[in-house]
């Protein structure tokens, strides 16, 4: 009878023990586990902290007693193996409950001790409020700490998947969460362009990010931990989670002089045999040659550990298992509403390994764009430009990420190529996929490049190759262009390229782009067939550009980092904003439409419905939030619910009888009571007149609304908006327009700025209040100030640039105010 001794009782250890028993009923199997539990769900620990997994007992896949009962394995929890005697083939074990020590002899020893969290020697790191996460006892301590009402601010150090999962789960507990990462991006298993999307999503969810900034020290001050970063930034925390990474937990292997790799991982062969033929090792503690570079790598993931366990047991019992081929490190993480996944090598790793590669990407819908709830999915592949052999793939999106990454992983593991992706046959029906799945699209794009139909450029190459001589064509619609474009780009919509060829120089390098790449490609094809040769299509298009430039800006100004523009809705399949679905009865998808588009679409659909019908409207225009409330009230429809999630506003409205809500007497009173003033002009004299009238009306007890639109909007600009990210046109307008009410000029006799000064002096002499104090009076009198959302978008004046207390609304907000007003003025 053989004795198999196993060190470690979780993924690799318990898996090995179970398979050993299935293959060898006679053997004596002893499994030592230092902790209290075996086979627990370490991958589920962060979700227990967040309360998503509510029952602690659910973390235990199987108890020690049950494991013994089913597999007849001698399970020894709270027993630590403290040394290995290789000559005599025994391990020395300490019973952590009693302190007793004893030896256990083996025929084969299997090491699956896992990896321990890294705890660098940062000053103050031993503070009791600083936790690492590996085991159930770690999460118990964390849960106890965050259950205290005094614990409201958390700092998570490390932006790998454990750090991100902890950040999300602490946020789920309504805590203020800050994440610090020494690299310039989170999730090092994806490239920067993909990580940019994840980072924006985290900020949208209220997590403050400090990237490219390490922790210098922890200090306890007045009952809290002061976290000081290398940049000098100080963050106050009630709890700190260290998730900096893991290191193979291989002290006993090291002491036993087993061959170890550079980072302390145990070296094994394809049968998991260590440098000692009687000792095998699996899991997070081993290193194995990468299938791509052949250099040894450690991949601390549960999937490989479990599969290795199955193989090693066979190797032990039968003398040989199917040779292990290594792992391509396929991983996935949920980050709030987003999923990010990776397989194979990233661009960074390929560059480091000096492996030449090409990459293409696509921003597609998770399923057919015309079927409801198709959500944006960004994907990219990296491959050998000569052979088309796939090296890696990444996906970030709101739905369908998992199945796409698994398809890529399967092809990559089997040596697949871009041709395989183009040929891939998926199960298709509109709710699940598209007739050309994003996987196919990646294959098609890569084929086009290989066949010379297209030449692509990545954002990194774009940054390097932009010169004064480059002619950049934005192939989107003028409306999209006005909302933001690459610096220096010329807007030639792809439908107009043929008729505007004379505007496009033949002798300059040309870069084309659109929202995501498709219209850019169409433009490129037209140009190539008209003799243009130096043409490149920017893969990922404006969406990628926007995400990256936002992030690069946030890197410099982490405190001012702006809310993302990455919307979960893909629009049309070519990336253009989706027009309203006129045939929808219970759902209106107005995502991508600007004010007044969503309201007009809503009204059009509502007109065809009968009282009592319910309508669900989705929109991404921020002003719609307020507009739909006003519109419903105004039109006598009932707003059943209103929610904003992932930048998408969802309103459910019940069609009313078509009358304005409220009794007729109430309505009559409202009509007499109100005054509304549209401030269209930014001439100082006209604006003064508007405020004089507004304050006068307020003084008579009227409810006054001032609606600032177009040039009038500049009256509400603040001079100190902080760092505000703007597109090119927005910056242009920003420079040209007055910076606020103190900068306005007169409509007549302005005299190059002298006029306003004379006017101000005259007003002082005549004891007439200045514009700023009129504004203050109006605020104090309760005058409602509404900034027109559409004008804000057009003029590039974002919300942070407006004075405090200003509401943002659209036509419906104005109409509601106007309908309650006996006085309506346009100034
Ligand atoms: P482990 O599962 O860590 O087991 C090693 C065990 O050995 C430990 O319990 C340890 O106490 C014991 N031990 C060590 N030394 C001794 C000794 N001398 N004597 C006795 N016992 C000893 N992977 C994924 O693929 N997806 C995920 O979503 C995911 N989420 C994770 C979340 C968290 C919070 C953590 C910590 C890990 C996560 N992982 C995830 C990683 C995954 O859990 C590991 O890759 C996997 O458990 C490795 O298995 P292993 O057997 O090598 O080590």
Structural description of this entry:
The longest helix is centred in the middle third of the chain and has 17 residues. The chain has a 5-stranded parallel beta sheet. It is of the alpha/beta class and 827 residues long. The radius of gyration is 32 Å and the shape is globular. The chain is 31% helix and 24% strand. It contains 25 helices and 40 strands. The structure holds flavin-adenine dinucleotide. Flavin-adenine dinucleotide binds next to helix 1, strand 2, helix 2, strand 4 and helix 8.
Given as residue ranges, the uncertain stretches (5+ residues, pLDDT < 50) are 562-568, 580-585, 659-671
**Which bin fits the share of residues in helices?**
25-40%
Instruction: Let me know the average pLDDT.
Output: 88
The number of helical elements comes to 25
What structural class results from the helix and strand content? alpha/beta
Question: Ligands bound here?
Answer: flavin-adenine dinucleotide
For the largest sheet, list the strands in their spatial order: 3-2-1-7-19
Strand content: 15-25%
Q: Tell me the number of strands.
A: 40
Instruction: Summarize the main sheet.
Output: 5 strands, parallel
